[in-house]
Amino acid sequence: MQVIKNYVEEHRQRFLDELFELLRFPSVSADPKYKGEVLKTADFVADKLKAAGAEHVEVCATEGYPIVYGEKMKDPTLPTVLVYGHYDVQPPDPLDLWHTPPFEPTVRDGKIYARGACDDKGQFYMHVKAFELMMRTETLPCNIKFMIEGEEEVGSDNLGKFVSQNTERLKADVVLISDTSMLSMENPSLETGLRGLAYMEVEVQGPNRDLHSGVYGGAVANPATILCQMIASLHDENNHITIPSFYDGVIELSAEERKALNDAPFDLEEYKNDLSVEEVWGEKGYTTIERTGIRPTLEVNGIWGGYTGPGAKTVLPAKANAKISMRLVPGQDWKKISDLFKKHIESIAPKSVKVKVTAHHGGTPYVTPTDSIAFQAAFRAIEEAFGKQPVPTRGGGSIPIVALFEQELGIKTVLMGFGLDSDNLHSPNEKYDIFNYYKGIETIPLFHKYFAELSK
Ligand code: BES
Ligand code: MN
Ligand code: MN
Predict the structure, then answer these.
(1) Which of the following is catalytic: 18, 71, 120, 152?
(2) Going by fewer Cβ within 10 Å, which terminus of the chain is more open, N or C?
């Protein structure tokens, strides 16, 4: 531990400067206008992996953005850890809500503000620096492989193919990912699961053109109204989702498991204060922790139609649209759920409009076993670095590719995230605590150490 602390202390400023350099690239995968910048980011990551001591570093081309690969194979008899992360980020919009520009990292109150600070640049880069540390101090206790992709925020379309075509190169004993959250720095936690996802789009078409709302309003169905009515009907009075068969197969937790989950130190008042909401909301019969961890949900991500410009325009829009996503839990299949959603919307749409329902991407839920060597290694590493045992929690977010790692490579994933749910992921003013960044760099070598020890 002292070796680790000394190295981090000695290279503190450079570790931060390099992360800032990485954060200055606007690597937004969703928007083609950033293409050149996304590609430059991949090269930057490859250069830093090389500089840290990785071999066979390659920027692997795909039909979309490249995957950066690098490895250090010390000895084939040692266990191998495959580190996964993503160098792409979410779009920074709405820009006017940022206090400082999203791609000019700024420190305020000990926190780095920038798009990608936590998700996932600040987190995957800890692994690059921890690797450098282990190489320079000659303490790398296992083999290590890096796979850092550039399309996570848009559904990892090309990673699946890359993984299935490179099963030999990616052969490892465990996947290690830092792209999730902890409860707090005082209450370290380890996520044991990720939810799945089904992402849909609905288009409601009314009349063949926009109409004068005085001349036609009241006599022709307004697609915006119809869309809102349909969306509102997707939850009942207990906030259960009303799509027939939606909950079929959902794995319920035992009373014991639910109790363990709810024992996690979680302060509802603080949660409400942080979000400036008077009351929380959700499915009857479940706590906030359960609603975001073990229960499926349905959310409108965006809704539009008609006139949204300045001033007023009296118009009955011809069309209205919504993007709707559902978070899924073990027992649910995203393709099946996408079909159920489509059928249901089509069945409740009135004849006065036409609806078109399309599926975007999806993802399978994942639960990691807590009795594995890798989970135990992460547990001990956090315990040693934080001086406190981590609490197992279920994360609300999704990393769809994790289920595929198990399918294609036959290995489990450990989710050792150091972010906080309140770090404004995907929101304006995304941040990452400098303390978490260094804490992560200290914890990661301990994971490798314990994983190698326990694998013997
Ligand atoms: N890092 C997040 C996932 C996450 C965040 C998991 C916090 C647990 C806690 C990841 O980058 C992400 O945003 N995933 C997307 C899914 C993807 C298909 C766009 C998500 O969860 O919405
Ligand atoms: Mn992420
Ligand atoms: Mn994300």
Answers:
(1) 152
(2) C
